[in-house]
Amino acid sequence: MIRNAVIDSLMNRKSIREFTEQIPSEEEILTIVRAGQQAPFAMQLGSVIIQRNRETNAFNAPIQFIILCDLHRMEKVMKVRGWNREASNIHSLLFGMQDAAYMAQNMVTAAESLEMGSCFVGSALYMSEKLREDCNLPDHVFPLVILAMGFPAEDPPVRPRYPMEFHLFQEKYPDFPEDSVKRAMDQMDRGYLEQNYYKKAGFMIPLSDKAREEKFTFDNYSWTEHISRKMAQWSTDPEDLLEPLRICGLSLNEKRD
Amino acid sequence: MIRNAVIDSLMNRKSIREFTEQIPSEEEILTIVRAGQQAPFAMQLGSVIIQRNRETNAFNAPIQFIILCDLHRMEKVMKVRGWNREASNIHSLLFGMQDAAYMAQNMVTAAESLEMGSCFVGSALYMSEKLREDCNLPDHVFPLVILAMGFPAEDPPVRPRYPMEFHLFQEKYPDFPEDSVKRAMDQMDRGYLEQNYYKKAGFMIPLSDKAREEKFTFDNYSWTEHISRKMAQWSTDPEDLLEPLRICGLSLNEKRD
Question: ipTM higher than 0.85?
Answer without folding.
Answer: yes
